[in-house]
């Protein structure tokens, strides 16, 4: 990396779940300048629970040993208010994992408690233009809880990570068609970050060609959609533990594009953003949409033609999100 010429004041960035697997990749890429660039020093605020404080200290030691020129300082804490003080970005990675015998509703409730507290803390102490990305699952509902507990922050400052699903879709197409990933545009994954998601290639292009003319519908229905939707489970099966470096890479992609924007309007991304009611999707949910990163904001791509078959898949995933929302209704403000 070129030596920074003129250093700016550090930007403060919080990462929760700092002693976990995803953070072990994410923190290094943040400290290397992959979101804010080679001129921008960074202060890292690491939030962990009490039981993982020692491990978080170990992560801090290794970050220091990496001697990153851009890493101004590191703070390790158990207190969300301390972690989020004055931050420009927050990666909410830490979450309660699903343990044996735990029902989905128990998992939702355990995480709801974490994300309501963290939303309230962000509301109190984060910068008003903070960018929040929730990685911890169930990400789309966790972000709903965090945002609803942060009434003074615009809900558009909150997002759920759906970029991994998007990247998986691009990667599958690239392998199938033997074309570089950079050739693919107008791709999106609608809905929830769960098996109900809808990776949609109806509008996709590869260079000057329409992807639907290069692959057959049967392959999309029988292979592409289920493979992407179940990729997380497949990684666990093959690797023996859940996606970590690819999730960190997606979180970096998400935040970098959000901060800097993406010039080419055909290069849609997928972000789990606050629904404004577009495409008949219930307002107020956080849903994977086709989005563009423009001038520091995520914009939902407007006026797409949606067939009945697409709409049915989108609505099935949205129904799941509504059911999740109903389970945590008591914690929504
Ligand atoms: P790990 O279990 O390795 O790490 C999680 C860390 O969070 C632990 O160190 C734990 O102590 C900490 N933690 C728990 N509660 C906390 C709290 N209240 N405040 C701060 N820290 C807390 O999990 P990892 O593999 O890093 O995955 C983290 C989360 O990402 C999981 O919920 C996982 O399901 C989710 N994922 C989301 C993805 C996405 O695309 N949205 C993909 C990858 C991943 O599955």
Describe the SSE topology:
Blueprint: E1 11-16, H1 21-31, E2 42-47, H2 53-65, E3 71-77, H3 80-84, E4 89-92, H4 104-125, E5 131-134, H5 139-148, E6 158-160, H6 163-177, E7 184-185, E8 188-190, E9 198-200, E10 205-206, E11 209-210, H7 217-229, H8 231-239, H9 245-260, E12 269-274, E13 286-294, E14 297-300, H10 308-327
Parallel strand pairs: 1-2, 1-4, 2-3, 4-5, 5-6
Antiparallel strand pairs: 7-10, 8-9, 10-11, 12-13, 13-14
Helix pairs in contact: 1-9, 4-5, 6-7
This protein binds ligand NAX.
Could you walk me through the main structural features you see in this protein, from its secondary elements to its overall organization?
There is one protein chain. With 333 residues, the protein is α/β, with parallel strands linked by helices. The chain has helices at residues 21-31, 53-65, 80-84, 104-125, 139-148, 163-177, 217-229, 231-239, 245-260, 308-327, and strands spanning 11-16, 42-47, 71-77, 89-92, 131-134, 158-160, 184-185, 188-190, 198-200, 205-206, 209-210, 269-274, 286-294, 297-300. The strands form 4 sheets. The protein has a 6-stranded parallel β-sheet, with helices on both faces. The protein has a 3-stranded antiparallel β-sheet with strand order 7-10-11, with helices on one face. Helix 2 links the parallel strand 2 and strand 3 (71-77). The longest helix is centred in the middle third of the chain and has 22 residues, at 104-125. Bound molecules: ligand NAX. The site of ligand NAX has 29 residues, from helix 1.
């Amino acid at each position: 990396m070129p030596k920074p010429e003129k250093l700016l004041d550090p930007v403060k960035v919080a990462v929760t779940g700092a002693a976990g697997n995803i953070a072990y990749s994410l923190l290094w890429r943040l400290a290397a300048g992959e979101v804010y660039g080679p001129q921008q020093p960074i202060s890292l605020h690491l939030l962990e629970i009490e039981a993982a404080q020692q491990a978080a200290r170990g992560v801090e030691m290794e970050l220091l040993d990496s001697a990153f020129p851009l890493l101004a300082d590191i703070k390790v804490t158990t207190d969300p208010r301390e972690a989020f003080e004055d931050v420009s970005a927050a990666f909410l990675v830490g979450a309660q994992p699903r343990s044996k015998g735990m029902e989905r509703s128990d998992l939702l409730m355990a995480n709801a408690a974490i994300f309501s507290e963290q939303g309230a803390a962000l509301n109190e102490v984060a910068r008003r233009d903070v960018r929040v990305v929730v990685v911890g699952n169930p990400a789309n509902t966790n972000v709903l809880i965090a945002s609803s507990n942060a009434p003074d922050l615009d809900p558009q400052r909150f997002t759920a990570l759906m970029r991994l699903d998007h990247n998986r879709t691009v990667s599958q197409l690239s392998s199938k068609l033997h074309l570089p990933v950079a050739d693919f545009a107008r791709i999106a994954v609608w809905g929830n970050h769960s098996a109900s998601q809808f990776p949609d290639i109806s509008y996709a292009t590869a260079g000057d060609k329409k992807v639907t003319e290069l692959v057959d519908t049967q392959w999309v229905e029988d292979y592409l959609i289920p493979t992407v939707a179940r990729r997380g489970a497949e990684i666990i099966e093959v690797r023996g533990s859940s996606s970590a470096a690819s999730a960190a890479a997606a979180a970096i992609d998400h935040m970098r594009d959000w901060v800097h924007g993406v010039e080419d309007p055909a290069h849609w991304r997928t972000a789990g953003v606050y629904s404004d009611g577009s495409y008949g999707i219930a307002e107020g949910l956080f849903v994977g949409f086709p989005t563009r990163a423009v001038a520091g904001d995520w914009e939902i791509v407007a006026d797409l033609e949606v067939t009945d078959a697409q709409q049915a898949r989108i609505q099935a995933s949205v129904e799941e999100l509504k059911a999740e929302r109903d389970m945590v209704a008591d914690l929504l403000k």
